[in-house]
Structures are given as structure tokens and as C-alpha cells.
Amino acid sequence: MLISVFLALFLPCAGMSAVFLVYICLLCYAARHYHRDDPVKPATENGLSSTQLAKLPTTMGKDLVLGTECAVCLDDVEPEQLARMFPGCNHGFHVQCADTWLSKNPVCPVCRNKLDADFFVPPEENPC
Fold this sequence. Notes:
By secondary structure, the chain is mainly alpha-helical. The chain is built from 3 helices and 3 strands; from the N terminus they run H-H-E-E-E-H. A 3-stranded antiparallel beta sheet has the order 1-2-3. The mean pLDDT is 79. The chain folds into 2 domains: 7-34; 50-120, Zinc/RING finger domain, C3HC4 (zinc finger) (Herpes Virus-1), CATH 3.30.40.
């Protein structure tokens, strides 16, 4: 009688433990042998150089077209502050914020518009 109670309690626990152990072993095996081809895409583009940053247009805060909040620092661009306007989308930022951002990422922090490379090519002289 005591043995049947022991077996009735022990066998289900031993069976569940064995199933759990097999599950853990399968997880470990899969983690070791499953390789992703490209888990993280490498950064392919660098930011802008200081000479390229100097070519970007600046304006006063009062002349910004699409709002006065700087998307980098989330502070308002005051009307008397110097601001940098992103060519193409006309989003404006503090000069320091824009230069810091664009030296790392050549895209607009608001709309992710890529800065056109043609902007940095000097225009050809027109003979007419």
C-alpha cells in the first residue's frame, strides 16, 4: 500500500521532470547551433564633415518655416537664436544640435529625409 502511494506520487513528478529536462536541453542545443546570418545591419554611412556642415544654411529662429521646436534637444528655438535649416525638408534646429546630429547621421531627425549629396557639389558656372 505504501509503495503504491509512493509510485502514484513519484512517477508523475519524475515524468514531468524528464519532459522539462528534455525541453531545456533542446533550448540549449538550439541556442548554440542556430546562427542568424545578419542579426544587426552595420552602419553604412558616416555623418557630415565640418566643411559640409558649414555649407548648410542658417537662419534666425523667427524665420523657421516648420515650427520652432528643436527635435534634437526638444527645446524651443528662440526668435533671436541662430538656427540651422535642413535643405529639402526645411526643418529647423539649434545650430549646435543640428551639427552634433548631422556629424553622426546624415538624415533629418524629424522626417528621416536623407541629405542630398548634390547639395555639396558646387554649381557649375553658367556661361550665359
